[in-house]
Amino acid sequence: MRLLAVLVTLTALVRSYANNLQHRYHATFRACKRAPWPEWTAAAVDPHSFVFAAFAEFGGLVGPHLSACVAVHPCNQHVYAGFDNIDAYMRFYVNCGSGFADLHIKPRIAYHSPIAGTEPPLWKYGGGPPNAWHRNPWDVGGLGRIAKIHKLANTKESGTSYVEGPMQGGWGHNLVNMQDGIAIFDFGPQKWSWVLARDWQHRALSTMVRNVPEIILWGKMKLPFRSKALSVKGMDFRDAQTLSHAIDCRWWITAPSMKVSLAKLVLHIRTLGAVLRRVFKDTGLANAYVTGMYLSGTKAGVSVKLSIGQGLALRAGPATVVGLNALTAPFDVILTAVKGASDFNSSVTLDFVPDSGDTPLPLHRRTIVLCEHNIHCPPGVFPSEDDFSFVWTCNAGLGVCLPLKDEFTGRMRCAPYEGGIR
After folding, report:
1. Which residues fall within 8 angstroms of residue 219, CB to CB, at 6 or more apart?
2. Is the pTM of this model over 0.70?
3. Contacts of 84 (CB under 8 A, 6+ apart)
4. What share of residues in the chain are helix, strand, coil (percent, to 5)?
5. How far is CA 180 from the centre of its chain?
6. A GO molecular function for this record (predicted)?
7. Residue 167 to residues 103, 213, 246: CA-CA distances in angstroms?
């Protein structure tokens, strides 16, 4: 049974009772605690009389303890309806053009308003939507920007339907598939979750889940964040909020509070680990933890930002680029994969704050480009830390791209621009 169809039907029934003062069920309504505006007229339905009389057509599938409420705006008659204790797994399906969301959830709480909209209680009473991180995958060396997740998606905070409850596992269950399979979120079974669906004009879906979903990118690359191998005594990728915007195929995942072994991540999420092991020495990985994670995806590719809770020693090549043998304080590392790739590319951006005892640096950002041949190095437009553009060459011994020095002057050779050399 499709949940959205049930919500639409139940909302119509509740509205008919609320608008009819003479109806025998009208006087038994209770208040909607999460109605959008407290000044709305509110009432509720006795669970037993309401279920057996009005919901008999569903054959008891929605559960024997169902209760309902309704709020009607006194001026425009917009309806806000809520339902508690739906005791059955139902299919929450949203068609988004060439993409879809297909979730199997037991909605302990469900709220629906076709016009007025509802928002997650966590947002309404907990400080609003979370901050998310966005970065263009072609912005090599860029740090991206942070903003409220709904602002990045250019959509509303509220939606037409809100559902809260556990997700049922099973093959093909709990998938969010972006356009043409560019990105698939496989949520798997979840002990707790909520889902917010926007209207047909915006077609954006927000979720919060206990465990970060597994992500499959363009049918080639898998990021198995739900792997049991990553979880040790409650340390795992947890409490993630996602937003997928189907119209322009953009998506975000934000999980700012976690504790995951960096050594386990390197070992079990190999597409990330293969790059990280070329930047950091193995010593120290076992004692380091990922304390936060942000993902940003578009049609062009995906960017991942990992917050590392302590400093790490750098390999010789990256140390040459950064100018330090080790990072001695918590830092962020940014990795990128362009659409269609099988692995994350070789450019890694470090965002860190040097200790006071370190040599002063003009910026707290360094981008390391790993290489084996010159073809792996960026063109001259790739910026250095002082905003000049240099000619880059691969130092095969160190395995990184470095600015090419003039053999006569010893100075770094600048890249050509618009008819000349800087």
Report:
1. 181
2. yes
3. 66, 67, 68, 108, 109
4. 20, 35, 45
5. 19
6. isomerase activity
7. 7, 12, 22
